[in-house]
Amino acid sequence: MVTVKEHYENHLAKYYSWMSGGFSKKLEENRKFIKDHDLWPRGSGVAVDLGAGSGFQSIPLAALGYYVIAIDLSHHLLSELKKNAKDLSIEIINDDLLNFSKHAPDRVELVVCMGDTLTHLNTHQNIRKLLRSVYSVLEIGGQVILTFRDLTSELKGLDRFIPVRNDANTIFTCFLEYEKDYVKVHDIIYEKKHNQWELKKSVFNKIRISPQWTREILQEFGFKIDTYDIYNSVACIIAHKV
Ligand SMILES: C[S@@+](CC[C@H](N)C(=O)[O-])C[C@H]1O[C@@H](n2cnc3c(N)ncnc32)[C@H](O)[C@@H]1O
Ligand 1 centre from 228 Cα, in Å? Predict the structure, then answer.
């Protein structure tokens, strides 16, 4: 089993923006999310993007006036982010997001960990540790936004094969294998090169965390919950520090 970093760097990162539906589409989706949730800089104006990837959240947040600290393990995705960020105020940090507080200033207004990044952490303990640090860096009234897939209920049999995206030259399929605390995510890519289909495959673990458990942790640390939605098995939790 490869690590998350290896999975992205050696396999997924090159296809990530494409397989997510395309860069512009995801930017637009996140712009709408930010507008619908009435986010704009009201305090220090500092936002931290945990697992920023190619910038689907960092870019619209910076365009709204936040100073964004974008953290990710993937060199490849961060260079995409850099290319797309142009002159926006985005500080790019290539590090483990568990170290994010080392890179954050004293006052942070917003922390986002979106697009299923939370399930990439390897233990429940690390998720608790992360959310505790998020609470300590946030200013009073500052918000945290978590969006992640609820993997607690199992797909069965052939439903575990998920067609992600395809075009004339690439076919991306995901296969999910459920274990007690983790789901093995097999990312299977067929790519056409010189008229031949080449198979590339890699598997990594995602952790099975329930939205309820995550909400309870946030409350235990002192957050007040503003939004708690689950739609198509994707949880969205927004909370603020009181
Ligand atoms: C599913 S992608 C989400 C990216 C982006 N937020 C989005 O909405 O598309 C997960 C991202 O988290 C990064 N990541 C996973 N574990 C990480 C860790 N421990 N530290 C930093 N980045 C991590 C991966 O490299 C990847 O870019």
Answer: 22
